[in-house]
Amino acid sequence: MSEAEPVPDAAPAVAGVAGLVLAAGGGVRFGGPKGLARDTAGEPWVVRAVDTLRAAGCAPVLVTVGASGEDVAALVPRSAVAVPVPDWETGLAASVRAGIHAASRTPAAALLIVPVDIPDLPVAAVRRILALADSAVLAQATYDGRPGHPVLLGRDRWAALADGLSGDRGAGPYLRAHGAERIECGDLWHGADVDTR
Q1: Average pLDDT of each block of 10 consecutive residues along the chain (197 residues)?
Q2: Nearby residues of 3 by Cβ (< 8 Å), 6 or more positions away
Q3: Is 6 inside a domain boundary?
Q4: CATH code of the domain in which 110 resides
Q5: What range does the domain containing 63 cover?
């Protein structure tokens, strides 16, 4: 999805898949919280991420907020739910844990995770990963063989992942250790996140 390409209207929700946008970090390398970042047209990355996940069929969509939490939460569209991460400074693990905890209060059978710093993620890549959704799934998008996002976790995986998280590491070690299915999406998009302004 380029900046000029509008996000399609939301598709019918994929049965039992919640979406999670990780937007709680302080963005040290970026120079500030990425949850406050905007594209060149002025649209917040948070809005782009929520719209993309909803268009692909995720419901509900959750957004973790931590650094500049009130300001980031104010950008979260009404179609999504802001999830506070009080211990966001301890690292990425806190954000993923908070998102899993929030998702566990929904009936979702799977959780699709993206960071906020991939504003050009196309709906097509999300839908390709969502096609695998079930309660036991463990899958990750790859781009020319490089692991990236989205990541899809069946509900049966949530507790073990959350228990093993620590510091500034997300789901990557768990995905590698448990043989996550790798889904090539390099034909749809480059897959790179944005680390500098």
Answers
A1: 46 75 92 93 97 97 97 97 96 96 97 97 97 94 97 97 92 95 97 83
A2: 39, 40, 41, 43, 120
A3: no
A4: 3.90.550.10
A5: 18-184
H or E segment at 162?
A: helix 155-164
Tell me, yes or no, whether 9 lies in a domain: no
Give the count of domains, the chain: 1
Is the pTM for the entire model greater than 0.70?
yes
What pLDDT, on a 0 to 100 scale, did the predictor assign at position 31?
84
Span between the terminal Cα atoms of the chain, in Å: 19
Beta bridge partners of 113: 20, 151
Which one, of 37, 39, 82, 38, lies nearest residue 61 by Cα? Answer: 82
pLDDT at 1: 41
Look at residue 2 and tell me if it is in a domain: no
Pairing label, strands 61-65, 81-84 = parallel
pLDDT of residue 102: 98
pLDDT score for 2 = 41
d(CA 175, CA 171): 6
Q: 193 in a domain, yes or no?
A: no
The CA distance from 87 to 139, in Å, is 27
Cα gap 88→92, rounded to integer Å: 7
